[in-house]
Amino acid sequence: MDYEAELALVIGRNISNASIEQAKASILGYCCANDVSARDLQFRSSQWLLVKSSDGFAPVGPYLVTADEIADPNRLPIASYVNGERRQASNTRDMIFGCYEIVSYISRFMTLMPGDLILTGTPEGVIMGRPEQGREWLKDGDEVTIEIEGLGKLSNTFRKTRLAGKERF
After folding, report:
1. Is it the case that residue 41 has pLDDT exceeding 80?
2. pLDDT at 166
3. d(CA 91, CA 99)
4. Strand, coil or helix: what is 134?
5. How many CB atoms lie within 10 A of CB 164?
6. Rounded mean pLDDT of 134-150?
7. What is the CA radius of gyration of the chain?
């Protein structure tokens, strides 16, 4: 299992084929997200469905901060910690695409509805990006904390479970 600190955008109203301005106005708020990834499943398929969608994946929170409370979501420090050790440290200004561009682009292909979540991507520092000999995969009992300025800290403890006869987190 791998962690991915991400900014989550929460859509507040239906939009389709939105301009940048309409996309901005459609965002209800923001929260921290951990886009948990099952790297052992990543190369079994050309799709990301298995990697990103197991039970308990994609925790968000610790609460929703409304859009009017965040001056610029494209300028927020973001970090992840595993058992207190900082693993990722960046800023949303370093994203390839800004928040409003992402929403506008997605809305060209599907209607976004209230409550839809968009995870914006993760900065460098995930386990998969490290040299093979330096990779320490998440273990039972590890605590991952995602912190984004103004949005709080989302902490989750990883626990092993059995799914389809195999141990999973």
Report:
1. no
2. 59
3. 13
4. helix
5. 5
6. 92
7. 16
Three-state SS annotation for 16-78: CCCCHHHHHHHEEEEEEEECCECHHHHCCCCCCHHHHCCCCCCCEEEEEEEHHHCCCCCCCEE
Residue 152 CB-density burial (10 A; 0-12 exposed, 13-18 middle, 19+ buried): middle
Q: By three-state DSSP, how is residue 103 classified? A: helix
Q: What is the pLDDT of residue 55?
A: 77
What are the distances in angstroms from CA 93 to CA 49, 146, 165, 167? 28, 17, 43, 38
Q: What is the pLDDT of residues 20-35, one digit of tens each?
A: 999 999 999 999 999 8
| Domain coordinates in residue numbering, the chain | 5-164
CB 80 within 8 Å of CB 125: yes
**Ramachandran category for residue 111: left, alpha or beta (phi over 0 → left; psi -120 to 50 → alpha):** beta
Alpha carbon distances (Å) from 14 to 28, 31, 140, 157: 11, 19, 40, 34
| Domain 5-164: assigned CATH number | 3.90.850.10
What does the alpha-carbon distance between residue 123 and residue 127 come to, in Å, rounded to a whole number?
11
Across the range 92-101, mean pLDDT stands at 95
**What is the percent of the chain where pLDDT is above 70?**
91
Taking 80 as the threshold, does the pLDDT of residue 164 lie above it? Answer: no
